[in-house]
Amino acid sequence: MLKNNLEQKRREITDFIKSNPKATYKLIREKLKTHPERFFKSLEEAYNLAGIIPPRSFKIKTPDEKRKIIIEYIKSHPRAGGHTIRKETKINLLTLFKGIKEAYKKAGIEYPREESYKKPVNEKKKEIIRIIKENPQTTINELMKEIRTNPYRFYKSIDEIYRAAGIKRLSGNSKRSRSWRPCWWR
């Protein structure tokens, strides 16, 4: 009788895994009210018996394997930041590298935020003024996206930016009225 009950519970767990391929240990315990480790050596064995590819690897990776995974991820996603890399690979890169810059260096890719750091302050100021002269209706958010730095680090206010560019200041209303964006009231 016990052997029959054991087989029944194993079949119940494998059927649950087949219907929920991303089932976790916790989910199996909550839904089936049973502990899978009582019926299988590991959750990996349950997935293999169900004929489903496990949603994660149950094998512990060596530091060298983890480094390879991170380097490959950086090569395929060169603009990814540390948080994104950690989230997608499920590996904390700071345990393997001194910092994000070192990880990019090992991957043979220049750190994407480095280009902003290399520009001198005068160049950044000239770029801000050039953009404002080309399009006086540019907002601070658009400026920040284009030059990848905060203009308030170099100028105290938007008025000061307009003065440096030699353009009469446009207020928010005049920017909106001259804007190319369609308005709902027109």
Structural commentary:
The longest helix has 18 residues, at 2-19. This protein folds into 3 domains: 2-50, no CATH class; 63-112; 119-168. Helices cover 57% and strands 0% of the residues. It has 186 residues and is mainly α. It has helices at residues 2-19, 25-32, 43-50, 63-76, 82-89, 100-107, 114-118, 121-134, 140-147, 158-165, 172-178. The protein is elongated. The mean pLDDT is 84. The protein contains 11 helices and no strands.
Q: What are the defining features of this structure?
A:
single chain, 186 residues, mainly alpha, 3 domains, elongated
Q: Quaternary arrangement of the chains shown?
A: single chain
Work out the number of β strands: 0
Q: State the helical fraction.
A: 55-70%
Q: Could you report the average pLDDT, rounded to the nearest whole number? A: 84
Give the amount of beta strand, in percent.
under 5%
Q: What is the straight-line distance between the termini?
A: 79 Å
Main sheet, how many strands, which sense, barrel?
Answer: none
Q: Total helix count?
A: 11
Q: Could you outline the blueprint of secondary structure elements for this entry?
A:
Blueprint lengths: L1 H18 L5 H8 L10 H8 L12 H14 L5 H8 L10 H8 L6 H5 L2 H14 L5 H8 L10 H8 L6 H7 L8
Write a brief caption for the model.
With 186 residues, the chain is an all-alpha fold.
